């Protein structure tokens, strides 16, 4: 049995002015500038907490030949340039054509990609693969919980399996599930029938977190549904609201074994559960001054999640609003990170540990996340930025920040890096000499993913009320292409399951 795998992953923030280029994919994919498949993918992802880690697990257990063709990804940012998308798609299709006797396809996609040519970035990829392999070869796609799933996507694949967790700690399990289900399809043991629903509903990242209510209880209901006779898998996609496209928002799918009526009944039931939670899924934010007052009188470590500047959602990750407030308040024993500031990192490396540099920190990308802070800063530590994820998310995957520096300004430590990455793993601070458990306050450039690892040590977690292109506040965005009416922007009446 021969199964090919691969795909392109990008979460596109259309409110970002930074286009996503082919060079971004070449830098972030980790399999060489030629997007090597085959052994390069096995070497990078075997025994890791990733979708391809799960594909490889399934291949090992079920003894099928897995042939990874390409695994391309770039950090979330603005619209993907057509040259980048076309190059990666054509590489995948060319390698697919060169692979004989393919029995099935596993597509490792995100679901919230927007390209210069198409708001629904994944659908053309899926459709091109379907056209190449024909109608009889089964295709399963794995998508992120933030996917803006469309009917085109659902029609192009036999099955879509979405992540069940946010933070995304179940990627390996979902990849394994996809591989196992595809084998059952190839053997003729099951005949999946998939039903899809899109809700007139937008939600923001903080309350999409499956470690807190109401998502925690919702997902328990989803798991119980998946245990019912005839149900093969169920997916809740909470959507990515920072994409001004028609399809942005919540959707769900249920796949049954050759029972279309059951699939329709169950997806309507699932949509109803989601709709009933619409008011509970709206976030509450804590202003900076309230956070500082709270942190000064409570034991740490307290985590302040600056999700508005979250690079995991396309933000520049060099915002200075919280840092400036902490410096002005003369706050003690705080660390802010990780700011994407190659210029400051290079200056610190030139000066060396123990030097004091005249720094111009952050605020270099745009004017929506704060202005640069000019100040003397003590260089406490330097490193090359090479680390391995130790936390539950992406466990085992090698990461590269490039040259990093730990700066000290009064009682505030600032971590700067040369590459833009979300702070979601304590190892990302340990690599530069910071022990997060020993800090009173940790300001993370992250919305939710940090909870997977930092949640174990945090005494309190507060969602930041800060400016930025990933701010969880609908008033921050001028939607022009989003379908309307949609809740909570509009009054909407709908009766799922009625």
From TrEMBL:
Residues 305-481 form the Microcystin LR degradation protein MlrC C-terminal domain. Residues 2-294 form the Microcystin LR degradation protein MlrC N-terminal domain. Pfam families: DUF1485, MlrC_C. InterPro entries: MlrC, MlrC_C, MlrC_N. It comes from the Bacteria. This is Microcystinase C.
């Amino acid at each position: 049995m021969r199964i090919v795998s691969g795909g392109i992953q990008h979460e596109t923030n259309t409110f970002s002015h930074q286009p996503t280029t082919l060079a971004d994919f070449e830098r972030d994919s980790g399999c060489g500038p030629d997007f090597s498949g085959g052994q390069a993918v096995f070497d990078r992802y075997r025994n890791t907490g990733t979708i391809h880690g799960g594909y490889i697990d399934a291949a090992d257990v079920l003894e099928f030949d897995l042939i990874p063709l390409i695994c391309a990804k770039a950090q979330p940012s603005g619209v993907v340039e057509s040259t980048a998308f076309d190059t990666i798609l054509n590489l995948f299709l060319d390698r697919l054509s060169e692979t004989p006797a393919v029995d099935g396809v596993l597509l490792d996609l995100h679901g919230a990609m927007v390209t210069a040519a198409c708001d629904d970035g994944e659908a053309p990829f899926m459709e091109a693969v379907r056209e190449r392999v024909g109608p009889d070869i089964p295709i399963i796609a794995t998508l992120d919980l933030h996917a803006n799933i469309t009917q085109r996507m659902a029609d192009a694949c036999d099955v879509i399996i979405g992540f069940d967790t946010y933070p995304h700690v179940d990627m390996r399990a979902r990849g394994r599930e996809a591989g196992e289900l595809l084998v059952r399809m190839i053997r003729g043991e099951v005949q999946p029938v998939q039903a899809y629903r899109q809700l007139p509903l937008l939600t923001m990242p903080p309350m999409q977190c499956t470690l807190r209510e109401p998502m925690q209880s919702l997902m328990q209901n989803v798991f119980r549904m998946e245990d019912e006779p005839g149900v093969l898998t169920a997916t809740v996609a909470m959507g990515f609201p920072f994409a001004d496209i028609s399809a942005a928002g919540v959707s769900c799918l249920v796949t049954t074994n050759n029972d279309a009526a059951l699939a329709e009944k169950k997806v309507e039931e699932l949509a109803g559960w989601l709709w009933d939670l619409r008011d509970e899924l709206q976030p509450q934010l804590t202003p900076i001054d309230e956070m500082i007052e709270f942190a000064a009188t409570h034991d740490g470590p307290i985590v302040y999640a600056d999700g508005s500047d979250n690079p995991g959602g396309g933000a520049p990750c060099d915002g200075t609003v919280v840092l400036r407030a902490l410096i002005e308040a003369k706050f003690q024993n705080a660390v802010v990170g990780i700011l994407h500031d190659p210029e400051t990192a290079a200056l610190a490396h030139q000066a060396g540990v123990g030097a004091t540099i005249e720094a111009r920190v952050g605020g270099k990308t745009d004017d929506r996340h704060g202005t640069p802070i000019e100040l003397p800063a003590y260089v406490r530590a330097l490193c090359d930025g090479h680390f391995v994820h130790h936390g539950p998310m992406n466990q085992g995957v090698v990461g590269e920040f490039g040259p990093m520096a730990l700066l000290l300004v009064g009682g505030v430590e600032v971590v700067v890096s040369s590459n833009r990455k979300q702070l979601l793993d304590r190892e990302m601070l340990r690599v530069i000499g910071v022990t997060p458990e020993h800090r009173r306050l940790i300001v993370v450039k992250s919305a939710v993913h940090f909870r997977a690892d930092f949640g174990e040590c945090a005494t309190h977690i507060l969602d930041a009320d800060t400016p930025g292109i990933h701010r969880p506040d609908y008033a921050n965005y001028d939607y022009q292409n989003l379908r309307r009416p949609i809740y909570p922007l509009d009054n909407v009446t709908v009766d799922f399951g009625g």
